[in-house]
Specification:
By secondary structure, the chain is an all-alpha fold. The chain contains 13 helices and two strands.
Length: 303
């Protein structure tokens, strides 16, 4: 006879088992392929399977990582990647919270649902389609803003254009996450505050923001972990891959893609090295951000 305590534990274990198996098969077992980043990975016939290729490929140490810093564009790419992601993190966090609070204050559910749909819809549009929306505005011949300047030859305004495009596509998704957290707040707290004479702004600052603080910190830490991962679709498709714009649109992912297309590259080892480099930097950033949060607010740190 299984005790009720162990029945509950067994039920929870079985419920999480599919997710655990998914992580094991698709996330942890493939980590063995990291070794390719340190090899001159080549197919080895007559049996060119992955395992056989790994076992017979030459070990080259850190040679595959050299291309990341090999050209004059490397430091410009690193600067752009960090700068764009830093701005994206700050603006997305602040504006998503503001929009979520605004949605929560809308009295009629119909309008709240309507605005949620409008904000969430761009998240499902690919950057390829979005690039033609931007082109319709900026086309130097037939675009809405064609009389202003040739935007595709002038890099000056592109940091703002890319930031607006990113916010247009991602704000809705992040807003819904914060909105869900806000709707879970005990309404009795707001009623008590209103009885005490607290204004809407005071309720937001004293109840709403502190209540969703754990969610804000968690999403912030996760975003910092991807600070070296640029959105390839945004930076490749929106500027239409125009050469004159590379100085302000080149980020890590587009840089690696261009290098891998060159005749001297194309190595799977180099591509694996680039991915490993991004993930190591991301891990360091997550640990650093969590350590900083734990120092000032231990209860809300992720670990």
């Amino acid at each position: 006879m299984i005790s009720p305590k162990y029945k509950k534990t067994l039920a929870i274990t079985l419920m999480m088992l599919p997710g655990a198996l998914w992580l094991l098969v698709l996330r942890y077992i493939p980590m063995a392929g990291i070794v390719i980043a340190f090899q001159d990975y080549r197919p080895h016939p007559p049996n060119p399977t992955l395992i056989n290729n790994i076992l017979n490929s030459q070990f080259v140490g850190l040679e595959n990582f050299r291309f990341i810093f090999a050209t004059d564009r490397a430091w410009n790419m690193i600067r752009n990647t960090l700068a764009y992601n830093g701005v994206f993190i700050v603006l997305t966090t602040v504006l998503s919270i503001a929009l979520a609070i605004g949605l929560n204050e809308i009295g009629k559910k119909f309008f709240a649902k309507f605005y949620q749909t409008l904000m969430f819809f761009p998240f499902f549009i690919s950057w390829v389609v979005a690039s033609y929306f931007v082109f319709a505005f900026l086309d130097p011949t037939f675009g809405v803003l064609s009389g202003v300047r040739n935007w595709y030859l002038d890099p000056t305004g592109w940091p703002i254009i890319l930031t607006i495009a990113h916010l247009w596509k991602t704000l809705g998704f992040n807003c819904i996450i914060y909105f869900a957290a806000i709707t879970g707040i005990d309404q009795g707290m707001y009623e008590a505050a209103a009885i005490d004479g607290a204004s809407k702004w005071r309720q937001v600052w004293s109840i709403t923001i502190p209540s969703i603080k754990p969610m804000i910190i968690m999403l912030f830490i996760m975003a910092v972990g991807r600070i070296f991962n640029a959105d390839f679709g945004l930076f490749w498709n929106i500027p239409m891959n125009m050469g004159p714009l590379q100085g302000v649109t080149e980020v890590f992912d587009t840089y690696v893609f261009r290098v891998m297309q060159s005749p001297i590259a194309g190595s799977m080892g180099m591509a694996t090295a680039a991915g490993l480099f991004q993930n190591v930097i991301g891990f360091i950033c997550i640990m650093s951000a969590n350590t900083l949060v734990r120092k000032f607010d231990r209860d809300n740190a992720m670990f």
